[in-house]
Design brief:
Heat Shock Protein 90, single chain, rod-shaped, four-stranded antiparallel β-sheet, alpha+beta, five-stranded mixed β-sheet, about 60% helix, about 450 residues, 9 strands
Length: about 450
């Protein structure tokens, strides 16, 4: 069920309930009004009769005169008059006011709901000849009921009009809300489809405007992340090509030339009077050099010691290598032994993040000290690399930091890069601890 249908159903139920309660209230008020009006009319007629006979002389109390007085009351609303003789039989009825034919008669259910019991009052008159006549006053509330019916209809239709206006106003508001919701949904569908450059227009409703603003901010963040990922992917491909060129050049320059030299020395050793011992020493020296080149190439591609000796030994070798290359840089290394149980995937990521941090320190930091801590904290592996170098300005993070962040986040962790000019750099990364799979 849509939101519009749900709201309209609830409004309809509320309208029906209001109309029922309003109708019951209108009938009750009409009943009380009819009752009061009829009682007031009878009281007024009795007072007028008493006043008329009190002012008339006793000799004037004959049939012709007092009947004319009673006839004057026939226009009184809601009442009927009758003359009753001593024997109790009516001798004459005064004509009561007829209801205007233009007035619509109320329905029977309304008459029964509003009508009250017919009240009757008797007034005895002593005639001049000593006889007594009785005036019988009977209530007839049909006039008042007819008026109450008209007022009730007016009240009912006014309530209906008011509720229709409210219904239309509510629907106009919900139309505006639904348009805002539809715009947000359309924007989210475009974001889902990878179109991060969309902008949802602002809404007049503050809550929806806040949602639209958040969606726009999310789109911009996703756009930036997409651009960073694309740039990182291009940079990764450039690094791959650079590494391939480097490996190709090293294979050509080092391996190729060394193998050519070994071959030449082997041919020379076959000649008479050749210094075999000297040639052998040269071949051994060239092979040692080739071994170093191969180990360097293998370390660049993948550290075999990580699988054979573990993370601690591999990181210790990495720190020692940088210490050998940069004797002026004081590197301290701390490692928690339980991390030797790390799985291979997590271990290589810890190694690469630490390697990138040290590479950045050597290339950019101009530091004299760097502290590397690989800690086991609860269910996390925490990497902290702190240097005392020149620091970096905010927003100056390069592809190296982006690559580290990508690695860490892919493992379900988080990387923080904190730096200020002249205050050094602190790189902190944590990743969930994942142990080795049992064979």
């Amino acid at each position: 069920m849509s939101l519009r249908t749900l709201i309209n159903l609830r409004i309809l139920l509320s309208v029906v309930l209001i109309l029922i309660l309003g109708g019951m209230t209108a009938v009750w008020q009409a009943r009380q009004s009819v009752k009061k009006e009829v009682k007031s009319s009878i009281t007024l007629a009795l007072q007028m009769i008493e006043l008329g006979f009190a002012q008339a002389p006793a000799a004037g109390k004959n049939s012709s005169e007092w009947l004319s007085r009673i006839s004057a009351l026939q226009q009184t609303r809601h009442l009927q008059f009758a003359i009753i003789q001593d024997g109790g039989k009516p001798i004459k009825f005064a004509f009561h006011r007829e209801v205007d034919n233009s007035e619509s008669r109320p329905p029977n259910w309304f008459i029964q709901a509003v009508g009250t019991e017919y009240l009757t009052e008797r007034y005895d008159v002593s005639m001049a000849d000593g006889s007594k006549q009785t005036i019988l006053i009977t209530a007839n509330p049909l006039d008042e009921i007819t008026e109450a019916w008209g007022e009730s209809k007016a009240f009912f239709w006014s309530v209906v009009v008011m509720l229709l206006v409210i219904f239309l106003a509510v629907n106009l508001v919900f139309n505006s809300m639904l348009r805002a919701v539809q715009a947000i949904l359309t924007g989210l569908h475009q974001v889902e489809a990878g179109k991060y450059d969309i902008t949802i227009t602002k809404s007049n409703i503050s809550e929806f405007d806040a949602i639209a603003t958040e969606v726009n901010e999310m789109s911009r963040a996703l756009k930036v992340a997409q651009e960073n990922n694309q740039a990182l992917a291009r940079h990764t491909m450039q690094i791959q090509e650079t590494e391939r060129k480097t490996l190709s050049r090293e294979l050509h320059d080092e391996m190729g030339q060394s193998l050519t030299a070994i071959k030449a020395m082997a041919v020379t050793s076959q000649q008479k009077n050749s210094d075999v011992a000297s040639i052998a020493d040269s071949i051994i020296e060239i092979c040692d050099h080739l071994a170093k080149v191969v180990r360097s190439m293998m370390r660049t591609l993948h550290p075999l010691s990580l699988t054979e000796l573990g993370l601690n030994a591999t990181l210790t070798d990495l720190v020692s290598e940088w210490q050998r290359r940069q004797p002026d840089l004081d590197i301290t290394f701390q490692y928690d032994e339980p991390l030797d149980k790390l799985g291979s995937e997590l271990a290589i990521n810890v190694y690469r993040v630490t390697q990138e941090c040290l590479t950045n320190v050597v290339r950019h930091a101009k530091a004299s000290k760097v502290n590397v801590i690989i800690a086991y904290t609860g269910d996390r592996v925490v990497i902290t690399v702190r240097d005392n170098g020149i620091g970096a300005q905010a927003g100056s993070q390069g592809f190296g930091v982006l690559g580290m962040r990508e690695r860490v986040e892919n493992m379900g962790g988080q990387l923080n890069f904190n730096s200020s000019q002249g205050q050094g750099v602190i790189v902190t990364a944590w990743m969930p601890f994942v142990g080795k799979k049992s064979e």
